[in-house]
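Ligand-bound model needed. 3-(4-hydroxy-phenyl)pyruvic acid.
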Amino acid sequence: ARRQGLADVISITTRKAETLEEARALNLGDVYSLDPAEAVAGADLVILCTPVGAYESVMKAIAPALKPGTILSDVGSVKRHVHQVVGPFVPEGVHFIPGHPMAGTEHSGPSAGFAELFSGRWSILTPEPQVDRAAVERVVAFWEAMGSDVELMDAAHHDLVVAITSHVPHLIAYNIVGTADELESVTKSEVIKFSAGGFRDFTRIAASDPVMWRDVFLTNRDAVLEMLGRFLEDLSMLQRAVRVGDGPALEELFTRTRAIRRSIIDAGQETAAPDFGRPHEAPPAPELPRFVKEHGGGEDA
Ligand SMILES: NC(=O)C1=CN([C@@H]2O[C@H](COP(=O)(O)OP(=O)(O)OC[C@H]3O[C@@H](n4cnc5c(N)ncnc54)[C@H](O)[C@@H]3O)[C@@H](O)[C@H]2O)C=CC1
Ligand SMILES: O=C(O)C(=O)Cc1ccc(O)cc1
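Prediction:
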């Protein structure tokens, strides 16, 4: 936002003094405060960026300081719960426009951000239908200025979509790494030593922030359970195909899934963010089409 000149003043508040100092050392904002109410006073746009489980206490702290006309948004990974817990605290005249940038890494904290993070990625907004259209357009323009494509949808639909595309995949990663960790016949050092295969990709995802993901699963329970149920049914079929040696069934599925990977690459939605070392030190993101062309075939692109 700062690089694009989207705000005259960027005001940052965090829970812990050390996190605020980290943000200050990285020169991420203009003013810094440990008092959330002080930080949002007079703001035109307020974006909640805490784990979703903290939203209610944050709203209690900031609601009295929000001026009429302010746009209140967020970046939380679940949306129905956010409407439920934040909605009741939104003061008259404040425009509540929840959002979810579909971009991130397994890293967290101020140093995990980098200016190109949202470039070429989707941002989803889930405003209620009665919300002021001009305010919605301003939030759309904000994300577009950061390089995102923006889509508006109903919060319940958002939660189902991300349950299958993001939440269940994280649960699977946490589970498989946990299972490997508990194996007795394979030592831990072997797991680490031979993790060049698919397991390695799971360990990246399973290194994601424990509190953030705890809150995701506590607050998107219904959609996650719905998708997990379908996943387990399909896994049982796969288990049977392996047991009875049903080669055609295995090949048919693997052919279909390969096509999905290719369509993601073709749509330019695959970026190198996870492979950067320290994310904020990442080189400027190349134009996506060129990057995909250069790395397009590589499965780790
Ligand atoms: N990490 C990712 O890849 C993505 C995260 N999100 C969402 O963004 C939000 C923030 O995630 P990150 O930026 O990764 O986390 P982060 O750990 O980098 O930042 C979270 C901030 O929340 C504050 N905080 C934590 N607990 C708090 C509490 N109990 N009360 C008040 N403040 C508290 C801290 O100041 C901390 O700096 C989450 O809701 C997450 O679902 C959305 C898209 C991607
Ligand atoms: O690190 C990854 O691969 C991610 O999937 C990042 C991510 C985490 C949470 C979200 O709500 C959106 C994106």
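Residues 267 and 289 are 9 Å apart (CA to CA).
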